[in-house]
Design goal:
The protein has 166 residues and is mainly β. Helices cover 0% and strands 39% of the residues. The strands form 4 sheets. A 4-stranded antiparallel sheet has the order 1-2-3-4, with no helix packed on it. It has a 4-stranded antiparallel sheet with strand order 6-7-9-10, with no helix packed on it. The chain has a 4-stranded antiparallel sheet with strand order 11-12-13-14, with no helix packed on it. It starts with 12 loop residues before the first strand and ends in a 13-residue tail after the last strand. 29% of the residues are buried.
């Protein structure tokens, strides 16, 4: 690790003999029995973000899923994260920033595919894995774990609700 690399909170996941987590520089995968680093991706994260906006990381059937904010015009982290307080945006860290789901091969760390996703009202992205399909909130499109092909679309239409949240 470099002196400017930091662990992102709420991102540690374990499955069988693998443990993975997100840092400010990428996703790291270790052998859960020995602690030996198996691979590391390069996927920087924004330096400034709201306090609720941690990445989401899930291990599922040979795939590492990581949902995080896109860099866009926001600088990538080259030191500690600047966590904003409050949910209404913090300068360069808007509340509803564009987010992306990246899928990596659990054995090699090779990037498999990407798909759009989004944060909730003051909450990080949820990832729901059902069988071989992942549903990132809040668009409810289902993607094949291995290929990223869109294979399902859940009906999310409902009567209007005043100030609905999660």
């Amino acid at each position: 690790y470099s002196e400017q690399e930091y662990l992102m909170p709420l991102t540690m996941a374990v499955r069988d003999d693998r443990i993975a987590y997100k840092t400010t520089e990428g996703v790291v995968c270790l052998n859960s029995h020995t602690g030996k680093k198996l691979w590391k991706t390069t996927s920087p994260t924004p330096q400034t973000r709201p306090g609720f906006s941690a990445p989401t990381l899930v291990l599922a059937d040979g795939v590492v899923l990581c949902a995080d904010r896109k860099l866009g015009s926001i600088d990538n982290a080259n030191g500690p994260i600047n966590w904003g307080v409050g949910g209404w945006g913090t300068g360069k860290a808007p509340r509803n920033a564009e987010t992306i789901l990246r899928a990596y091969d659990l054995e090699t760390g090779n990037k498999l595919w990407t798909a759009p996703c989004s944060e909730h009202y003051n909450a990080q992205v949820d990832l729901f894995v059902l069988g071989n399909t992942v549903y990132p909130s809040t668009r409810f499109a289902g993607y094949d774990l291995q290929t990223g092909d869109k294979v399902d679309q859940l009906d999310q239409h409902s009567p209007p609700v005043s100030m609905g949240h999660h």
